[in-house]
From TrEMBL, chain A:
It is found in: Cytoplasm, Cytosol. GO terms for cellular component: cytosol. Keywords: Cytoplasm, Initiation factor, Protein biosynthesis. SUPFAM superfamilies: NagB/RpiA/CoA transferase-like (SSF100950). Residues 1-130, 158-282, 627-710 are annotated as: Disordered. GO terms for molecular function: translation initiation factor activity. The keyword Translocase does not apply. This is Translation initiation factor eIF2B subunit delta. Residues 85-106 have a biased composition (Polar residues). Residues 1-15, 158-168, 176-190, 231-272, 634-655, 674-695 have a biased composition (Basic and acidic residues). Transmembrane segments: none annotated.
Automatic annotation (TrEMBL), chain B:
Acts as a component of the translation initiation factor 2B (eIF2B) complex, which catalyzes the exchange of GDP for GTP on the eukaryotic initiation factor 2 (eIF2) complex gamma subunit. Its guanine nucleotide exchange factor activity is repressed when bound to eIF2 complex phosphorylated on the alpha subunit, thereby limiting the amount of methionyl-initiator methionine tRNA available to the ribosome and consequently global translation is repressed. It is found in: Cytoplasm, Cytosol. One of its GO terms (cellular component) is eukaryotic translation initiation factor 2B complex. GO terms for molecular function: guanyl-nucleotide exchange factor activity; translation initiation factor activity. This is Translation initiation factor eIF2B subunit gamma. It comes from the Eukaryota. Component of the translation initiation factor 2B (eIF2B) complex which is a heterodecamer of two sets of five different subunits: alpha, beta, gamma, delta and epsilon. Subunits alpha, beta and delta comprise a regulatory subcomplex and subunits epsilon and gamma comprise a catalytic subcomplex. Within the complex, the hexameric regulatory complex resides at the center, with the two heterodimeric catalytic subcomplexes bound on opposite sides. Pfam families: LbH_EIF2B (PF25084), NTP_transferase (PF00483). InterPro entries: eIF2B_gamma, LbH_EIF2B3/5, NTP_transferase_dom, Nucleotide-diphossugar_trans. Belongs to the eIF-2B gamma/epsilon subunits family. Its main location: cytoplasm. Residues 361-453 form the EIF2B subunit epsilon/gamma LbH domain. PANTHER family: TRANSLATION INITIATION FACTOR EIF-2B SUBUNIT GAMMA.
Length: 710, 468
């Protein structure tokens, strides 16, 4: 299974640098892929094993790309007649039945094509992300078009040698056991693929007249079709937008897009490079805490004045975006939802003022612009995961714009898309969360919350409106003391509150019956990434056997897996913890901040392991933390078959049971666990008996992987 | 290049006209904006500062037609191809507020940065603009630490007697975060006590009153608000004396919000569903750090039952290491001349020699003549033997005889000085003729004046009869 890591890494470089090794991720190899019709494992040559048979099908017009990458090999006996080069193969020309029936591809030697790919990968890896996405498609296209090639053994062998050690090293020793697993996985993938193809065909047929023009649209894009489906309205523009998708993205954008968020700041080369292209002059902090060297850390005092003084030099930055950036930097806006909304509204404003320069296309130019804004905002403060998801959404929408739209129409469409995002993913999501969560509040409850969260606040206020009798304990911590603002608002509404600092949490936990916490993000292994201190509160609550409910909108979910709060975190202003506001006499650290022996660490986030979390309340319903991936529509795109079992667990904690399905019915279905643990689980428990349950529920599953590629 | 795009800021430089406070120095030929500071018109310091900060489109407002003509001819000569400057002439004595009223129709951007033309400073104007934007303020003022030398508000006959008194420029009250302006009064106008509004004090709960700050006369205004105020309050003459204090006073009971800030923010959201639109803004408000304005607007119990209208008046306090001075008195004129070649010589734009002075290559020095550090000697000037120049600025094409002492003085262009003169702490304008053995101490000599041989003056202002 090792080899799977290759496409995985390739397709989403952001995940590549997660602090520990994330093993093959089926979320990528998406079972619904039609290409999974690839051969039974038995026929894969040993090295061929390295090929994930399940791959992302190519965007249609990628064939030229493909031929660039490995032109000579994939001439199939069948297709060979048609043309010497694959690029001449009409893109949608193969028969859907070909991949529906596994036997058709029996002879396919994936080893070869995969090898080509992985070799290329190996060589291109150091240079960063440009080639990655395209490569990702390459093997896929190879796969689809070459599906019946019988590869001369010699060639494979030779190539294998040439391919170098890299890959073989990676394949390690665990090839054998993996092989076994893969068989199973494969079989399932196969079924998935068939189903997906059917669904796609159906949806295409019903949705667009364009599809009627032939098998073309259907079989070329069994996956792309669903990609378009999430937006119900643009069915008319499907054809056009599909064409767009195929267009090569400006490579530049991708490159810019890729390395930033997960840069390791102890890597001097990269830091140098980043400095060169940065808008701001950033002074690096001198004394870094050893474990956190890889995080961006700057002298806090210097950035704001520098950014302010260069106000007039930042011409390419729209004023609204600038304002939001400065407010991030100054700490005027904090909180995931607020930051996300502020950013989106700034983007809206900038799009409103936008006009396409002559001889440029709106889609490309606007994307470039947005990229510039985003990197500016990143310099002001690292993006939260929710913002990353929102940006991804926005870019996808821009890229999907039909070409025939006029500028004003295009702008209006994007603006309304953003409005929809804000309203549906944030505002409406919060309302749904409130609705769900309120059912968990009973008379006489004592609810504990930590910090200040908009979602939790709304829950409390709504429960109060419903006349429930409960008490709130607000736990707060230095240096931000955000809880005070929440306290003020709650007390203003007449809710009875207790306010305490986190030091006292173990004492106050005795009387608490529920813990309501918010999250900055929920990762796919159920880890809750949230304001620092949340983990402690959750741990104490766990120790006291008090249910911990996490309120988190689905747009904040992320496919990343993180086991600790070290590999990805954010550092705040160290001065904030060195000083005590309002108490000038506490000045023991004055002038000490530059001492070599003193390192101040002001962490912003921490990671709460899923063990401490009883339940996550999202807009798709209430789920156990271990199935976090289900709820999210955008980022995580897999569904764990074992979720049903897990759901059972949720009912077992002392919360009232609820119809388990409502969340699941709304949630777009995806299967494929994304962390090693879960995969293990999946393998062990085998598939749930009633597979058709999923089938019946799965709408033509919107594959959202494209969000990540953008 | 498109004006007023980019950051949506417009820059207006108020260059003034023939300022009365500078009377012997300014004249029909030399409006205030063109007074030389280290042999460069004072206006060039502002324009260079703006140019360094990428501000290339600006409006220069000059009082009086003739002054405007001379200013615009100088600007177009100097900044051709570098800046895009519109020079607007307004009637004399309309005041700064009146000047803005007169160019009202040209103001289109969202915010206006108003800079006084007599400002010599190195504070980036962007910082003021950024602070303004960040808080969404109606006005943001640049404050800098007051120079240690004398006050400049009195403004009558120069440096006569008050040079040593402790200066009081402004009485300024700030909130604890030093971001908002709670009260401002000109130091000279304060008699005994200042009155601070109770409501503001109650809202902020803590107020810091300082007298060591100076209003540098660089303001960022929200355009809609500025225009409202100027139109509604027709009696307002001066930005500093009327408009700014008015805005500060009324910040908690704002009258201008009806069509000002609020509509700016909410106007674009009308299309969206009304009640769902309230939520994001509320979300934003809840999660952003509230200033006392917002808390006050919410009312004492934190519920938004009655929203009170407020607006924000911000300040940007310049770093102490920045130089900042206004040329609004004769004292200030000598001080700035001294500083620009001395402590703040990065502003002058010249490169200083190893002796820390500038002697133009075309200047001719006699034997045994010494030019000390912190001096400037303009091109084409000639000096006789055994002269000594200390801490002074000498303009172009001056002819200075032998045995002349010049200490801490400013000598403009085309001045003729006879043998044996001694000049100390004085300002001598263009085309002045000093005959032999004149002794001047702390004097100002108006343009074209002739000082007869052997005369001796102390702390006097000499000018031709046309003085008003």
């Amino acid at each position: 299974m090792e080899p799977r890591r290759v496409p995985r890494t390739v397709s989403d470089p952001k995940v590549r640098r997660v602090g520990f090794f994330a093993p093959p991720d089926r979320s990528q190899s998406g079972p619904p892929d039609p290409t999974s019709s690839s051969p039974p494992v038995s026929q894969i040559s040993p090295s061929g094993n390295s090929l994930s048979p399940v791959m992302i099908p190519p965007p249609r017009n990628l064939s030229s790309d493909m031929s660039r990458h490995f032109p000579p090999a994939p001439i199939s006996p069948i297709r060979g007649a048609r043309g010497a080069s694959d690029s001449s193969v009409p893109v949608g020309s193969y028969n859907p039945s070909e991949f529906i029936s596994p036997t058709a591809t029996a002879d396919f030697s994936p080893g070869r094509s995969r090898k080509g790919n992985s070799a290329e990968f190996a060589s291109s890896l150091p240079t960063g992300g440009i080639g990655m996405v395209t490569q990702n498609n390459v093997p896929a296209s190879g796969l689809t078009t070459v599906s019946t090639v019988r590869m001369p053994k010699a060639v494979t062998e030779k190539e294998r040698l040439a391919m170098g050690e890299v890959q073989r090293d990676q394949q390690a020793g665990d090839l054998k056991p993996l092989k076994e697993k893969m068989t199973k996985a494969e079989r399932r993938a196969l079924q998935e693929a068939q189903r997906a193809a059917k669904a796609a065909a159906k949806s295409e047929g019903s949705k667009t007249q364009a599809a009627a023009s032939g098998a073309n649209a259907v079989n070329a894009n069994p996956v792309k079709a669903p990609k378009v489906t999430p937006s119900k309205k643009d069915s008319s523009s499907v054809a056009a937008s599909e064409k767009r998708d195929g267009d090569r993205q400006p490579d530049k954008d991708r490159k810019k897009d890729v390395p930033h968020p997960r840069m390791q700041f102890d890597d001097e080369n990269r830091v140098e490079k980043a400095k060169k292209r940065s808008v701001m002059k950033q002074t690096e902090a001198r004394s870094r805490v050893e474990l956190f060297r890889h995080l961006p850390q700057y002298e806090h005092g210097t950035r704001l004045p520098d950014l302010e003084s260069r106000f007039f030099q930042l011409d390419p930055i729209h004023p609204a975006v600038y304002k939001v950036g400065v407010r991030y930097l100054a700490g005027d806006i904090s909180g995931g939802n607020a930051r996300c909304i502020a950013m989106l509204q700034a983007f809206q404003e900038s799009i409103r003022d936008y006009s396409t320069p002559p001889e440029k296309s709106l889609v490309r130019d606007l994307t470039t612009k947005i990229n510039g804004y985003v990197s500016f905002l990143i310099e002001c403060r690292p993006l939260s995961i929710s913002m990353g998801n929102a940006i991804r959404f926005l870019k996808t929408r821009i890229n999907k714009l039909a070409l025939n739209l006029s500028e004003s129409e295009a702008k209006a469409s994007i603006l309304s898309d953003i409005d929809h995002f804000i309203n549906e993913k944030i505002i409406l999501a919060d309302k749904v969360i409130v609705k769900h969560a309120v059912t968990k509040i009973r008379d006489g409850d004592v609810l504990l919350t930590y910090g200040s969260s908009s979602a939790v606040e709304m829950i409390l206020l709504h429960a109060h409106e419903l006349g429930k009798q409960f008490r709130v304990v607000i736990v707060d911590s230095r240096p931000k003391l955000e809880g005070q603002a929440l306290l003020r608002r709650l007390v203003g509404q007449g809710i009875s509150c207790t306010y305490t600092h986190i030091n006292a949490v173990s004492y106050v936990m005795h009387e608490v019956t529920r813990v309501l916490l918010a999250a900055s993000s929920v990762l796919s292994n159920g880890t809750v990434y949230s304001r620092v201190g949340t983990a402690s509160v959750a741990m104490v609550a766990h120790q006291f056997r008090i249910p911990v409910l996490i309120c988190c909108e689905a747009y904040k979910f992320h496919e990343r897996v993180q086991l600790d709060s070290i590999c990805s975190n954010e550092l705040g202003d160290p001065d904030a913890i060195a000083r005590v506001s309002g108490r000038t006499e506490i000045n023991y650290l004055d002038g000490w901040t530059n001492s070599d022996n003193l390192q101040l660490l002001n962490l912003i986030y921490d990671a709460t392991p899923s063990d401490y979390v009883s339940m996550i309340i999202t807009d798709y319903g209430m789920i156990p933390p271990t199935t976090a991936t289900n709820a999210e529509q955008d980022a995580p795109r897999c569904r764990c078959p074992s979720s049903r079992e897990r759901r059972q667990e949720v009912r077992d904690i002392d919360l009232p049971p609820r119809p388990a399905t409502d969340a699941e019915q709304n949630a777009p279905r995806r299967r494929c666990p994304s962390s090693r643990e879960r995969r293990q689980e999946v393998r062990d428990i085998d598939l749930p008996p009633h597979r058709d349950y999923y089938d019946s529920n799965r709408s033509p599953s919107p594959r959202t992987r494209d969000y990540h590629k953008q | 290049m498109e004006p007023a795009r980019g950051m949506d800021f417009q820059v207006v430089v108020l260059a003034g006209g023939f300022s009365k406070s500078l009377v012997p120095l300014v004249s029909k030929e030399v409006p205030k904006a063109l007074l030389p500071v280290a042999n460069r018109p004072v206006l060039s310091y502002v324009l260079n500062l703006l140019e360094q900060n990428n501000v290339t489109d600006l409006i220069v407002v000059v009082e009086g037609e003739t002054a405007a003509l001379s200013a615009s001819s100088w600007i177009s000569k100097t900044y051709i191809d570098r800046l895009h400057v519109e020079v607007a002439a307004v009637p004399e004595d309309v005041g700064t507020a009146g000047a803005l009223r007169a160019i009202d129709h040209r103001l289109t951007a969202k915010d206006i940065l108003v800079v006084s033309g007599d400002l010599v400073c190195d504070v980036p104007p962007g910082a003021v603009a950024a602070a303004h934007r960040r808080h969404d303020a109606v006005v943001t003022a640049l404050l800098c630490s007051a120079p240690v030398s004398g006050p400049s508000d009195s403004g009558s006959s120069g440096a006569k007697d008050k040079a040593k008194k402790p200066g009081r420029y402004n009485i300024i009250a700030l909130d604890p975060t030093k971001q908002f302006l709670l009260h401002i009064a000109a130091g000279a106008e304060v008699e005994k006590d200042i009155r601070v509004q109770k409501s503001i004090l109650r809202a902020v709960s803590q107020m810091e009153i300082r007298s060591d700050l100076m209003d540098a006369h660089m303001y960022a205004f929200k355009r809609s608000v500025l225009q409202d105020v100027l139109n509604q309050k027709e009696t307002f003459q001066s930005l500093r004396r009327d408009v700014l204090p008015y805005l500060v006073r009324s910040q908690l009971r704002s009258e201008l919000m009806s069509n000002g800030v609020q509509s700016d923010e909410n106007g674009n959201s009308k299309d969206a569903m009304q009640n769902s639109k309230i939520l994001p803004s509320q979300l934003l408000a809840n999660e952003s750090t509230p200033s006392f304005h917002e808390l006050y607007a919410l009312g004492p119990d934190g519920s938004a039952s009655i929203t009170r209208k407020t607006h924000k008046c911000c300040v940007y306090i310049a770093n102490k290491s920045n130089y900042c001075a206004r040329l609004n008195s004769i004292q200030a004129f000598s001080d700035i001349n001294r500083d620009v070649v001395g402590v703040a010589n990065h502003l002058s734009g010249y490169s200083f020699s190893a002796q820390n002075n500038i002697i133009h290559p075309s200047a001719v020095l006699g034997s045994k003549t010494t030019v000390g550090p912190q001096c400037v000697l303009g091109d084409g000037s000639q000096m006789g033997d055994k002269c000594s120049v200390k801490k002074s600025v000498i303009g172009r094409h001056c002819r200075i005889g032998s045995n002349v002492k010049v200490v801490s003085s400013v000598i403009m262009d085309h001045v003729t000085i006879g043998d044996g003169c001694s000049i100390q702490g004085s300002v001598i304008c263009s085309n002045v003729q000093l005959q032999e053995r004149v002794i001047l101490k702390d004097c100002q000599v108006g343009a074209g004046f002739v000082v007869t041989a052997g005369s001796e003056y102390k702390a006097e202002s000499l000018a031709k009869k046309e003085r008003p």
